[in-house]
Amino acid sequence: MATPRKKPAGKNSAAKKVKDEELTPLDVHAIQLNELYKSFRKAGFPIDISLFLITDKGAHPDWFYTMVPDLELLEDEEDED
To answer: Residue 68 and residue 49: Cα distance in Å, rounded?
Structure first.
């Protein structure tokens, strides 16, 4: 009986699992920028203009930054170190 082949590492290997954690403020910011970029592209803006607009904070809507870090939580984490 033939021995089964081993799968090569890379394309067919199992993907690494990411811990199921809550989104950090940085995660939320990255998601917001990505969605803003996709919105500009969908509206017909070219790539270079879309990239410029997501870096220009004046082009962001007022409600864009909705997640404010919990300062008390940050202070608690610093005290533990």
So the answer is: 28
